[in-house]
Amino acid sequence: MISGSLHDASWLVTDRLVGASQGAFAFGNLAVHVGDDPDAVADNRTALAHRIGVPQVVFTRAAHSNRVVHVERIVADVPDSDGLLTDRPDLAIAAQGADCAMIGIATADGWIAAVHCGWQGLASGVVTSALAGMAAAGSRLDAPQAHVGPTICARCYPVDPDRAAQVEAVAPGAVVADDAGYAVDLRAGLADQFRELGVTATWDPRCTAESDELYSYRRDGRTGRQALTILRRSA
Ligand SMILES: [Zn+2]
Questions:
Q1: N or C: which end of the chain has fewer CB within 10 A?
Q2: What torsion, rounded to 10 degrees, do the Cα atoms 31, 32, 36, 40 define?
Q3: How far out from the chain centre does Cα 139 lie?
Q4: Is 132 part of any domain?
Q5: CA of residue 168 to ligand 1 center, whole Å
Q6: For residue 209, how far is its CA from the centre of ligand 1 (angstroms)?
Q7: Centre of ligand 1 from the C-alpha of residue 149, in Å
Q8: Residue 158: inside a domain, yes or no?
């Protein structure tokens, strides 16, 4: 696991190395929707909560959309969404991924968000949506900072021409074209969006598909999900 901070919030990125899941999901899978044993996922989620010192972590239910949900307490059933945001201290929120970018965002005025962003999130503007959601909930969007967790790299993310065109229409910087065809560079697309939105960012350099300690849907198909959690502590 790797951890760091954004303003007074701390983030943590999990991996697959430790946990109760077995087989294709070994060991640290945090996703309930992928076919893993629910008891193993529950154990892994409890271990993560203990590690960061909260009763429970609130996870997104990824829908490849730009919907971001404002949460103010621990909720068991979050609606389908690709991001969560809150200004509540000691409330840990998390986004899951296995190639898609997992992004933690914090502002200097005490708001945090956890966002899941693949090519659809890039095209539909899920990061923009997260910041708009914070502003609508009362944030001044004071000096927003982001950390982008491990993400599939462009070399490992070839796409067909149709998908390339869909992404290029809204995020031209995210499409790479060469003799081999088209690929999506999620980091490049996010960097452009951060620049437009005035967000400063730090980046996990790892490619999920090239890192054995991480889950990769493109590499493995049936597999688990890692997560990025973010939390602002009251004390
Ligand atoms: Zn790669």
A1: C
A2: 80
A3: 21
A4: yes
A5: 20
A6: 5
A7: 14
A8: no
Name the residue range of residue 24's domain: 2-153+199-232
How remote is the CA of residue 76 from the centroid of ligand 1, in Å?
34
Do you know the residue count of the chain? 235
3-class SS of residue 154: helix
183 part of a folded domain: no
**Residue 86 CA, ligand 1 centroid: distance in Å:** 32
What are the pLDDT tens digits along the chain (235 aa)? Answer: 999 999 999 999 999 999 999 999 999 999 998 999 999 999 999 999 999 999 999 999 877 888 999 999 999 888 888 999 999 999 999 999 999 999 999 999 999 999 999 999 999 999 999 999 999 999 999 999 999 999 999 999 999 999 999 999 999 999 999 888 999 999 999 999 999 999 999 999 999 999 999 999 999 999 999 999 999 999 7
Nearest CA among 78, 3, 55, 60 for reference residue 225: 60
